[in-house]
Design brief:
278 residues; mainly alpha; elongated
Amino acid sequence: MSLRRPFRNINFTIGFLITLIILLTALLSFVFTPFDPNRMNLSERFQAPNQSHWLGTDQYGRDILSRVMKGAVNSIIVGLVAVSIGMGFGILLGSLAAFYKKWIDETIMRISDVLYGFPAVLSAILITSILGPGAINSMIAIGIFNIPIFARLTRVTSLSIWERDYVTSARAIGRSDAGIIWKHILPNILSPLIVQGTVQFAIAILAEAGLSYLGLGTQPPHASWGRMLNEAQTFMGTSSYLAIFPGCAIALAVLGFNLLGDGLRDMLDPKLSRWVGR
């Protein structure tokens, strides 16, 4: 497939560009930010966007642009870890359910139904309330919510593949169950898992922002988009820009990963393909 072909899909193109900008911003923050994102300077507090502070300063005189850049790192790390946890355990459990069936399948799916019945943020609030606030616990909480999603998807997509002739042939020549799953099952279900992974990444960013807003996620003084919104709510009447910029960052990140997922779905599923100039 030509490298230009995916970019004929408008969803993929816009999602890819937004996601790339966010990733580059996060990478840049490791080597450069206009100011120290945690440095307080009370003499410069509540400055509106200007030449020195492009996005202004907050109630402690901290540069908002620098904190938004660092917040991108936090959101990406939380999303990456949470999706990895969900995908890793979900694929394992879904594969076991699809292969062994009977009581193992029933047990795994019923537990997944219970976990899936709670909204992401509500589940994360419950878990972080037990484990305590913090970025690591929020990653674990969001990751646990992702497990049943990937388990159900893996099971559904794997069931039909187990009946294929090449899987039957692999069994006939004595290939192990683990070898069949690794060599024949996973490569054929990878496409929907990748698409679902991008969607769950967006949900993880939104969930982390919600937890941080409630004080259960990333803790001060570390920058977090949700925490910035929490701190800005008191000053909405006088300094609305404090909430606008981190809010826009969250919206763009979620939009970017959702559009990227839609574009990948169109690209990887021939039935949904909508290439321009096909």
